[in-house]
Amino acid sequence: MIEPRELTLEEMGDLAAIIPAADPEVKVRYKAIPEFGRPTRRSIIPVCEPTLGGNELKYVQQAIETN
After folding, report:
1. Under a CB-based contact definition with an 8 Å cutoff, are residues 16 and 9 in contact?
2. Cβ distance 10 to 16 under 8 Å?
3. Measuring CA to CA, how many Å separate 66 from each of 17, 34, 53?
4. CA angle 60, 66, 67 (to 5 degrees)
5. Chain centroid offset of residue 34 CA
6. Which pLDDT value is given to residue 65?
7. Strand, coil or helix: 13
8. pLDDT, tens digit, 9 for 90 and up, residues 17-49
9. Phi, psi at residue 28, to the nearest 5°?
10. DSSP helix/strand/coil, 62
11. Distance, CA of 66 to chain centre
């Protein structure tokens, strides 16, 4: 019968780079739905202005024209 055994990185050698590890823990974050009649905290919406100093406008126009 085969028994599971943990190997060190040295024992695994080159196989350590191609054998997948355990999946990372997934953390789900969400904002609560505001309730009517209760005061809510105001959120700041970050706004920035795009810089179109190079060929960006040409690329967008080309994408629109060629679908």
Report:
1. yes
2. no
3. 42, 43, 22
4. 85
5. 26
6. 93
7. helix
8. 787 777 778 787 877 776 776 666 666 677 777
9. -100, 125
10. helix
11. 30
